[in-house]
């Protein structure tokens, strides 16, 4: 296999890492770890993006140097990343001699090609701060959809891109003043001559998600490309342009060069050859970015690389945005959570697993639903996976694994056959599929343990061998699952390796069970999510002046200690029905069921088609009117409550054989779920 060089977008040195940032760095870290588990040589490179107006203004306000600001932020960023088990091979800075040298080299290459021109540019100027304003330092109403409070380059409501001078009622975010139009000399790079090969490059299958390739073709590559303004007049914190006194490289010019410069630093530190990574056909380069910076990484950056003689990326993986509880992250609601604040209260493994369960190869936004996070971690990781080890390893502490792997009815072989699907899912960025396959294996393993009941067998004299056999099977199935989840949950994998005395650093290890080897003393591998800690994290993330009224209701089985004032509005709108007898109630057979598949009904506005399991071979098809509230893929694997003895109803889309229970007023729906530990088929009493 070729060498692999992977980068994530460079975090800006003017802000701390928050949960939205962590989607990208976690996604990239999982991808890198998965390839390493296949034995591939991989380098994961990142750096702080340090230049620009924001850092300069912060340094002025704090009366210290820009270098002091970026040094402090670099330490904070690296500390937060390490806390979430995000492991870089090298973490650098764009404010480095290497970055300046490469920026000068690329600039010279553009000059030699005759692609640079100077022009007088009309730009918004802050009359209070006496400086020209970058797009991100101007806000106003979108000139297209008229949405207020939009930045000077694009609208996050309608997606339009525009020039800052087109904003309606613009204001400087630095001083609040109304900007003035002024002229200044700028230096621009012409990339229109590169459009033919750039078009071909972007449209190669697998180069980037299909929707991104289509977006580029539809909005940019189907018409002449505009020249790119790559300079900023003084005052500005950045690298001076060598042949243009008083002008500096625009931050978006030297920021991606940080990928190259940080690789150079890493190569110099480790004795590797730089050209083996950025000037070699034997290395594949993968960039992971958010959808908001696609234009720079798929149009300007490839041109910079090609003109200067560097290797072009083989893949640009793009992810969507993060919402929390269905809304944009909000400081007032406490859902704008910094990574450091999260680490004060919760296990980083929770977030890594939750993000993985949502991340697929497409450019979809994902929602961090904090109740769902607790339910997934408690119901899947703790109850299904870790519980396998806690229920079996203690019986093997003295004997170790059985001398030879016992007959298990094909369970381990079935898990081994999942190897190729797991590997392919990681390779294709479909981490959600990895978690689904792993949980299906965990379900089967737990069904085996429930049947074997080693805790009961151990009480019967003469059953010692059966206990060892059953627990050897269970613990090997547990190890197999953890191997598959190791890129997502590296700390769990490390702890399991210590317990079992065997490494879990190769996917191939999932194909061979352990036999005749010792088992260590069991230590708690993962705690359940405590709703009180989640609530405390939210409360402490709110500004000091806001109320601390809880925003995350705790599950009924784990009541929150915080005071809750429930509104009487729902009951007033829909009063309690007429009294029924217990005989009436017992006629309704409510059962726990697991959703095993979910799909939209194209010709129906409200319906999803669900296939639910009641345990064993019992399956039901249920049409539920929740299409507007849930994505089908988010429901798969979820435990729900259904009315199991409702008379079947023939619909034009098919036969509905039950009803999924949900709560909510008009225009909302919340599917009801049992607490973790409930099993499909159990009756609700």
Describe this structure in words.
- It contains 23 helices and 25 strands.
- It is an alpha+beta fold and 685 residues long.
- Among the domains are: 346-511, Isoleucyl-tRNA Synthetase, Domain 1 (Orthogonal Bundle); 582-671, Beta Barrel (OB fold (Dihydrolipoamide Acetyltransferase, E2P)).
- It has a 5-stranded parallel sheet with strand order 3-2-1-13-14, sandwiched between helices. Strands 19-18-17-20-23 form a 5-stranded antiparallel sheet. It has a 4-stranded antiparallel sheet with strand order 5-4-9-10, with no helix packed on it.
- α2 (53-62) crosses α3 (66-83).
- Mean pLDDT is 91; it is low at 546-565.
Quick overview:
This protein has 685 residues and is of the alpha+beta class.
Provide keyphrases for this structure.
17% strand, 38% helix, alpha+beta, Isoleucyl-tRNA Synthetase, Domain 1, five-stranded parallel sheet, five-stranded antiparallel sheet, OB fold (Dihydrolipoamide Acetyltransferase, E2P), 685 residues
CATH superfamily of the domain at 346-511: Isoleucyl-tRNA Synthetase, Domain 1
Strand content: 15-25%
Give the CA-CA distance, first to last residue.
57 Å
Number of helices: 23
Low-confidence stretches: 546-565
CATH class of the domain at 346-511: Mainly Alpha
